[in-house]
Amino acid sequence: MKNRLIKSPGATPLYNQIADDLRFKIVANEWSTGEKIPPELELCMLYNVSRITVRKAIDELVREGYLYRQRAKGTFVLSLDDTNEKQHYTMVRSFTKEMEELGKKAETLSATVKLIEASKRVSKQLNIPEGSEVLQLRRIRGTVGHPFAYFITHIPYIEKFSLDNEDYYGSFYDYLRSFGIVVSESKEYVEATIATEELQKILKVPEYTPILKRVRMTFQSERNFHEFSECYYIGNQYRYYVEMNG
């Protein structure tokens, strides 16, 4: 039996209607945690729409944290507990974009890139074997003479990635996008801390300066590509905004 969709002019886009229906099935426990949802072609027949429309609906629920993909296996349902946590962190934005929204014009003051071997901690976050080659990027962001953020980023090394510091002065996500890597999902932790001696020197702040530490893990499930970043912001220079859904 086909699900009826409203296709009249001015109606909600079909992929949104499908996403709403799939979301209801998950919330209503019609599909249990870890259960594989019907394949895209079956959903196309169910809703009488194109595969592109079905894929957009699934992508929406992946971004919201209701579903997750496993390569060569299919799409599965996340637990509602995980969904409640993840739905607040579904939009991945670059630091450049965030600063624009805060009315600040930020630039990279310093960028240093090198190859290292993944430690146990980093390899776990990147989902790669310990000791694998990893690109480590350290950047200081701010305005001329006034640094206010320090980023330490790790990503799995791919030969086409540059090891020239000059190539990392722009938006990091724009750089990844140039290789067809578009991270669409993220998980973040934020905590308040105090500037260490290293951060005091890098950010040019006095002892006991409040620091906002933000740990970000992003990934593109289709390529199994992960990014692990630790970001440090001067407390009175950065405001963290979260929009809660539901």
TrEMBL record:
Pfam families: GntR, UTRA. Residues 12-80 form the HTH gntR-type domain. CDD domains: WHTH_GntR. Transmembrane segments: none annotated. GO terms for biological process: negative regulation of DNA-templated transcription. This is GntR family transcriptional regulator. SUPFAM superfamilies: Chorismate lyase-like (SSF64288), Winged helix' DNA-binding domain (SSF46785). Keywords: DNA-binding, Transcription, Transcription regulation.
